[in-house]
């Protein structure tokens, strides 16, 4: 038996509460802590821990942004089947952040494609300007007309 297992659950809960109140522990740290052992999983799964996280964190999903119907508050479910309602808030937050990150990646991809197209158009405009300045605009059009026929 190690010295950590001698400490009572109440003391571990108090340590977690202090960590949350001082912002030393966030929801990610609590999740990591819950993977250490069964005891920490049980303690970290307690609704009081997650309610403290909501109160002491900059939780952005209060108000119109949060659909409370998404929170599982069914008291008829057994406690092992019923996920903590406050922990559910963080799950909802995680899902929304994941969707937002995916949208951000898609927007960046579209912006890159757009900037590449703008660069291509600018190159063609410079070629056309040079052709007009040198009086070779007909050869410019013939070149791109034949290029379009070959690619299509």
Automatic annotation (TrEMBL):
Q: Source species, please?
A: Buddleja alternifolia
Q: Where does the F-box domain lie?
A: 4-53
Its protein name is F-box domain-containing protein
Matching InterPro entries? F-box-like_dom_sf, F-box_dom
Bilayer-crossing residues are none
